Amino acid sequence: MKLSRRLYTLDNSTVLSDGDKKRAREILSSPDALHYMSSEESCEEEAVDPRRGPTPRKVRRLSWERRKLRNIKVILDEAYFATLNEKQRVNRTEDESSRPITPSPN
Questions:
Q1: What ranges does the record give for the region Disordered, renumbered to this chain (predicted)?
Q2: Dist CA 10 CA 20 (whole Å)
């Protein structure tokens, strides 16, 4: 999802220079593109708070990633989020769920 979102934004945005777009497209369209995406991790025991829903995931930076590529990805992400309306931007994990909590069978 993150990769397709960045490629879409890359193709439909004017926030990057042509040179940066070309290089980013080469990297993000390569067969190894998923290796350029940071992993997300969360602790399984703490993955869901019954009152608040799933906890946000920590994003692990790629230690070998160049600053230039990291900056391009940040620019693409910011450009994508700028296109979302307010409702789409809401982090639903911050809201209380209106659904009743059912106890898990032990």
A1: 36-56, 86-106
A2: 10
